[in-house]
Amino acid sequence: MNLSISTLILLVATGAIIGTNANTTTVPESSIYRLNSHVLPISYDIWLKPYLLATDGERRFTFDGEVNVTLYATQANTSEITLHAHLINLANISLYNDSNAEELLQTFTYSDIAYDGDTHQLTLILKDQLTLKNKFRLRFAYTGQIRDGMQGFFRANYTDHEGNEKWIGVTQSQRIDARTIFPCFDEPALKAKFSLQLSRPKNYRTVFNTELLESIPDGDDRMLDRFAATPPMSTYLVAFIVSEFEEYGSDELKIITRAEYQNKTHFAYEVAERAINAYDAYTQQPYKELGLDVMQMAGSPKFPHNGMENWGLVIYTDDVLVNEPDYTDGWSNKEYTLSVIVHETAHMWFGNSVTFAWWSYFWLNEAFARYYQYFMAHQLYPEYHLDQQFVVNQIHLIFGIDAVGSTQPMTSPEESINTPSEIGYKFSSIAYAKGAAIIRMIANLMGLDNFDNAIRAYLKEYYLKNTTPEDLFKHLKQHWPSSHQVDLDAFFHDWTEQVGFPVLFVNINDKHEIELTQQRFILGLGDGSNDTLTYTIPITYATNVESDFNNLTARFYVPNNMNKTFTVDKPFKWIIFNLQQSNYYRVFYDMTTLKHIKTALSMKQHDGIPPTNRAQLIDDSFNFARIAMMDYDEVFQFLEYIENDTDYLPWYATFSNMQFVAQRLTLQQQSLFVKYLDDIMTKIYTHLGFTRSNETVLDIYNRNKVVSWACKYHLFKCGGQAQEFFNTSIKVGNKPTPDFRETLYCSATRDGAFFYYQTLNEWFEKEKLNSEKKKLIYAMGCTRYFYAYHYARILNGDIPSDYAAAGITPMYAENPENVEPVFIMITNTSERLAERIGWPSVANVIKDIANYLTTPEQKQILDDFVTEKGEYFGNSFSTLQIATATVELNLEWAKLRLPKLIHYFEKRNSAGRKSVTVILLIFVCIIQWFL
Ligand SMILES: *[C@@H]1O[C@H](CO)[C@@H](O)[C@H](O)[C@H]1NC(C)=O
Ligand SMILES: *[C@@H]1O[C@H](CO)[C@@H](O)[C@H](O)[C@H]1NC(C)=O
Ligand SMILES: *[C@@H]1O[C@H](CO)[C@@H](O)[C@H](O)[C@H]1NC(C)=O
Ligand SMILES: *[C@@H]1O[C@H](CO)[C@@H](O)[C@H](O)[C@H]1NC(C)=O
Ligand SMILES: *[C@@H]1O[C@H](CO)[C@@H](O)[C@H](O)[C@H]1NC(C)=O
Ligand SMILES: *[C@@H]1O[C@H](CO)[C@@H](O)[C@H](O)[C@H]1NC(C)=O
Ligand SMILES: [Zn+2]
Question: What angle do CA 568, 573, 575 make, to 5 degrees?
Fold first, then answer.
């Protein structure tokens, strides 16, 4: 659906109002979305008067606006000006000579104006052609809405510490909403300078991209704030806030939030300060020399993104800036703060100074921001090991998305991205996560020093300009070591213009020849993915005799249309390809080679094979098994090595992949699986325990996963230990650290007496902080024995419906043995549940449980439910259909993929029992011998 500008009201000079529908004027049949560049903007002088107060009456949440756009023609015979406007009511449009602002050239009347509601293009037909050498001033007077959504100029409310409801006006111009705030040439390449005058109630404060120049009285208890001009920048970076927030910090770096947050933003402030200094040094273009003296970071109670990099005024969702002591100041909260701030700060260079030329190249902004969010942040805060975390958080995650038919290339052809929804399509995790992975691959291959030099040269050449990928590649090529034998054009094409990534197949024969071949990795066979794509593959490897895992320079490149057979000089026991998983592909080893790797992994210190590569081996194996390139018994056999692994990354890869299998096991199969889990988890569980001295941040992260899996499957008396730890914590009056809180609460409540449920419920009722209430309600839902009581409280409204969904999920997700009874309970009470949360949410609950259904009987219950109650669901019926399809798919998949695994578990378990029998026999013999 396209929102149109609604009614274009034209107030002609005489004061008469002509109302007309925008599309009464002729619009070309196939709309052209791109502006021609016959006229270009130089600067915008904007004046806005927003009405935010209850006393503003009918005008509340609207604004008056005026803008002067200074522009010039690039071509002779220019007889039209076309620019963007959307969702604003234009009242007066006139054209002046810029050098003599008094000289009115034309006042536009209805017949001079055409508007296209699809393209948001406003075309003004000129009486006289624009002369080439002059500048002109196009003046608009208009009104608009302070919107309810989270786009353009929008409103947000919060309750202050005295319990009063407060409203702020805040902006999000990206992607294409600057045009809803003022008429403009709303394309990223059409950079201009922006100045703002903003009228506000006296007790409010305004902030804009730039520094405040002056505030002057503006009648009626209002003030007019006048701000300096921005450097030339894209329209999507324009930002301002009207609020009662406080401002603190220095002249150079300020934080703008609600007053009561001031003392909770110290960490955010420190991060920003360090990040700016680090980028200043790294880019050799200090922030202040880019064009603005000040960096302001504002928090909003309601915001569509974690952060938006508006130049000089980065707006964050409050959670990023605010670390509540004892609540949201754990390591993981700080990692979030740190990642987002380092990301947004990177954009000052990558995006704000140097901007993609068009949305089809959006990754040129985001790939860098995501890359530095890990690797610059790692320089500043090494304790988070973000360099390692990148592999599991970004690469393994994006591999799932880049292996199905719906993926997209990083770079799309410019002409294929035109409409608002096509622009939206490029805002994909491919631009961010794959982009960052490809940047990392490039940086490591060419060498970090070369890469850094290339980036500096790129930032310097295109300072305040726009770029295409070719502009970046030009600098990368110039700094790429000439000794490397690689076709860089093919390399860049393969990884940025093609979708997907390959599996490198490694086959070693008895003559020790290594044969390398490739094929694209595709998860959804038959989903339209092109399986013939090939890639220029950089080869890195290490062996037990040449075990430098940190040299990420390619030994050689395999061209996209070739295979390669080679030998390694020094004989080796094991070989690992794709060191640190620095290159964007999976590796499939022949079974003998994989066995040798497993042997190495089982040795002391895993024979020097680092956590990133261990995580890669695990993630690859599980994914190969998922699509039958391997069997699960082989994966779980390989995974046995992990019983001696205590690092976070391999366990992260294990848990996140094992979930896919565990969820699809019947209860009966699960008992076999649990025995296996018991074996591989004994050491890590003991190693981490509930507390541990000298623990690292990654140990703390790992404990969450280890304890939560151990307790979920009732291993190692985990539940009892969780209860004990819980009791001790509350006895000394200390809640456990925010990092471990949800896991501990859930684990203690699961098998615990009613006391645990009750305690959490008391806390829940007293608690004010939303994020903490969510943790508590989730933990309450973990109860294995009192779930029916818990559920009844959801149904009767004792638990507010806002928290219902968070309270229902753990009932089945955290208790595999309760999946069926909970499912039956919910299907039997669907009407009552719908009264609380509505049918669409009930449908979502059913869809989620469907992921855990594993037997034909359970499928039958679902089918019966859909037949019986389907009609109540209205539009959400399609959600139920997804649920049915999911169960069907899962049952079928399990039938095909699991038998060998089950057999392996059985064999393994009975082998274990056999050795116990042997010992018993020996024992009996010895006793007999003594007798
Ligand atoms: C404007 O366009 C819309 C959609 O294209 C159409 O439904 C409507 O009738 C048009 N209005 C006029 C006045 O032509
Ligand atoms: C626009 O320019 C006119 C003079 O041409 C001036 O009177 C008016 O104040 C300007 N408006 C803004 C917002 O700068
Ligand atoms: C914000 O406004 C909405 C709509 O008026 C209201 O439902 C909500 O309770 C308000 N939130 C706060 C925190 O005041
Ligand atoms: C912040 O802390 C300082 C010193 O502890 C205190 O003086 C100040 O009042 C606090 N500010 C707010 C807004 O709580
Ligand atoms: C698959 O990719 C190859 C190589 O780019 C291309 O030649 C071929 O046309 C593609 N096939 C389809 C069905 O798109
Ligand atoms: C890193 O590996 C490359 C490729 O094998 C090699 O040419 C280079 O000498 C190695 N560098 C170091 C420091 O070992
Ligand atoms: Zn970003």
Answer: 60
- The sign one gets for the Cα dihedral 151, 205, 163, 768 is positive
DSSP 8-state secondary structure symbol assigned to residue 590:
-
Q: What is the pLDDT of residues 797-834, one digit of tens each?
A: 999 999 999 999 999 999 999 999 999 999 999 999 99
| Nearest CA among 263, 234, 233 for reference residue 248 | 263
The model's pLDDT over 294-329, given as tens digits with 9 standing for 90+, comes to 999 999 999 999 999 999 999 999 999 999 999 999
The number of the ligand nearest the C-alpha atom of 344 reads 7
Looking at 3.10.310.70, 3.40.50.1820, 3.40.50.12780, 1.10.390.10, the CATH number of the domain 246-353 comes to 1.10.390.10
With the most atoms of ligand 6 within 8 angstroms of its CB, the residue from 553, 555, 582 to mutate is: 553
Q: Are strands 104-107 and 88-97 parallel, antiparallel or unpaired?
A: antiparallel
Query: Same CATH topology for 1-25+37-244 and 642-906?
Result: no
What H or E segment, with its residue span, contains residue 190? none
The topology (CATH level 3) of 642-906 is Zincin-like fold (1.25.50)
The token duo for 475 is 């600098």
The mean pLDDT value for 110-134 works out to 94
Q: Which residue has the tokens 């070309």?
A: 28
Whole-number Å distance between alpha carbons of 577 and 543: 9
Residue ranges of the domains in the chain?
1-25+37-244, 246-353, 384-589, 642-906
Q: Is the distance from the beta carbon of residue 101 to the nearest atom of ligand 2 less than 6 Å?
A: yes
Q: List the beta bridge partners of residue 10.
A: 18
- On whether 596 is known to bind a ligand per the annotation, the reply is no
User: Does the annotation mark 344 as catalytic?
Assistant: yes
The per-residue DSSP string of 830-864 comes to HHHHHHHH-HHHHHHHHHHHHTT--SHHHHHHHHH
Of the candidates 335, 344, 742, 814, the residue annotated as catalytic is 344
Output the CA 125–ligand 1 centroid distance in Å.
Answer: 22
Cβ–Cβ under 8 Å, residues 192 and 185: yes
- To test the ligand 4 pocket, which listed residue (162, 246, 263) has its Cβ within 8 A of the most ligand atoms? 263
Nearest CA to ligand 5 atom 14: 530
Residue with tokens 């005295």: 162
Residues 6+ apart with CB under 8 A from 889: none
- Domain 384-589 CATH class label: mainly beta
Residues 6+ apart with CB under 8 A from 547: 607, 608
Query: Of all residues in the chain, what percent are helix, strand and coil, respectively (each to 5)?
Result: 50, 20, 30
156 DSSP β-pair partners: 168
Distance 498 CA to ligand 5 centre (A): 10
Whether the CB-CB separation of 168 and 159 falls below 8 Å is answered with: no
Alpha carbon 567 to chain centroid, angstroms: 42
629-677 tens-digit pLDDT: 999 999 999 999 999 999 999 999 999 999 999 999 999 999 999 999 9
Cα–Cα distance measured from residue 105 to residue 113, given in angstroms and rounded to the nearest whole number: 16
Q: Identify the residue whose tokens are 């059409």.
A: 190
235 contacts 178 by C-beta, under 8 angstroms: yes
Quickly list DSSP for 732-752.
TT-PPPHHHHHHHHHHHHHHS
- Rounded CA separation 714/814 (Å): 11
The reply, when asked if residue 347 is annotated as ligand binding, is yes
Q: Tell me the residues surrounding ligand 7 (ion) with CB < 5 Å.
A: 366, 369
Nearest ligand, measured from the Cα of 561: 5
The CA distance from 868 to 451, in Å, is 62
pLDDT at 923: 52
Distance 159 CA to ligand 3 centre (A): 8
Token reading at 746: 């859930």
Q: How close is the Cα of 542 to the center of ligand 7, in Å?
A: 35
Architecture per CATH, 1-25+37-244: Sandwich (2.60)
pLDDT tens, position by position, 134-154: 999 999 999 999 999 999 999
